[in-house]
Amino acid sequence: MRMKVQSKSAVLFVVAAVVIVIAIAVVSVNLGYNHLAQAVHWGGEWDPAPLFWAAQQKEGGMVEPLPESYLPLLLPVRAGEYVYVGGNQPWRGLRIEIEVPNARQADLVSEYWDGRQWRRGGLDGTQRNWTTLSRSGDVSVGGSNWSPMTLPIKGATPISAYWVRFSVTADLDQATAGAAQVIHNAPVLLSSDWELLSHRRSACENRPGLSMIRITVLDKDGLPLKGVKVGFDTEPARGIAYDHPDIWGLTDENGYLEWNHFGVPTQYRLWAGGVLTVVNIRTDLGNEYCGTGLGSWRPVNLPGIYSWDILLQQR
């Protein structure tokens, strides 16, 4: 028998309101987009886990590996140079935490490869008063026709990835400092006690069960593990969440537990055996689209309407 876990509280409140809205045009005819790239991007598949690379190109020079001096900000501070960030699958953007703000007026430009040329896209949430990197915020990237490209890198093997090219329109304060974290859709494993064998959320395969988190737990030999205490809470200060969620249950004889999160858009964390195990289980993502087979696209997911299938195995 499958066990369903219910929340002890149904009071909703807003714990943060940092929202970047990406507008997507729904079309009923084939406009010549790269449908494979679009399907992968908005389908949100991250299995296996995401990989990322970074490179730099000085004005008039070749693309080279990113110097350590550019870490952890991952962005250029001088006009005329580029910083490239690429993922093995399309990604959402960068979350920037500013330590020393920039005070010089400049725009941050992000460009993605559309299969033929670099195209501007995304929004800069760090800009204030026409000054980029003047505050912490999210930088969104990409577009519906984002395509992978092979980037030649001096002294390294060329890497095929979904690249974004960042630049600034004027020199920034040299003291500008901060840290960037890539925003992606994939759950992140924290505990060394477990192995995350698979995690999948497909917009096109999300029915039935539009708001379910389904967990299967295996022992070291790959057999179902009964009686594992599994719990959920929410990422601090991210989106809309339950008021002090206290959501717990035990896996059944099939090592299985499922929970209906009732379409609440937020970022959940999973605890297994009393240990914080998986974070970034996101239900707060934007609209996603699936092809109908006729060259058109239909919305299948709205923020909050996401299901996750997570498979854990003891190490």
Spell out the key features of this protein.
mainly beta; seven-stranded antiparallel beta sheet; 2 domains; Jelly Rolls; disordered N terminus; 23 strands; Immunoglobulin-like; 315 residues; six-stranded antiparallel beta sheet; 42% strand
Structure at a glance:
This protein has 315 residues and is mainly beta.
Characterise this structure.
- The protein has one helix at 35-43, and strands at 4-5, 12-14, 52-57, 63-65, 82-87, 93-100, 108-113, 118-120, 137-140, 149-151, 159-168, 177-183, 188-189, 194-200, 212-218, 229-242, 247-250, 256-260, 266-272, 275-282, 288-291, 297-301, 308-314.
- Strands 3, 4, 5, 7, 8, 10 and 11 form a seven-stranded antiparallel sheet that branches. Strands 2, 13, 16, 17, 19 and 20 form a six-stranded antiparallel sheet that branches.
- Strand 21 (288-291) and strand 22 form a beta hairpin.
- The chain has two domains: 4-20 and 186-314, Immunoglobulin-like, CATH 2.60.40; 51-183, Jelly Rolls, CATH 2.60.120.
- The two termini are 26 Å apart.
- By secondary structure, the chain is mostly beta strands.
**Sheet with most strands:** 7 strands, antiparallel
| Rg value | 21 Å
State the helical fraction.
under 10%
* Overall 3D shape: elongated
CATH uppermost class of the largest domain: Mainly Beta
- Weakly predicted, low-confidence segments: 1-45, 292-298
Taken as a percent bin, the fraction of beta residues is 35-45%
Structural class: mainly beta
Q: What is the CATH third-level topology name of the largest domain?
A: Immunoglobulin-like
Strand element count: 23
CATH superfamily of the largest domain: Carboxypeptidase-like, regulatory domain
Q: What is the terminal separation in angstroms?
A: 26 Å
Q: In DSSP terms, counting alpha (H) and pi (I) runs of 4 or more, how many helices?
A: 1
- Overall pLDDT metric: 75
- The SSE string, one letter per element, is EEHEEEEEEEEEEEEEEEEEEEEE
CATH architecture of the largest domain: Sandwich
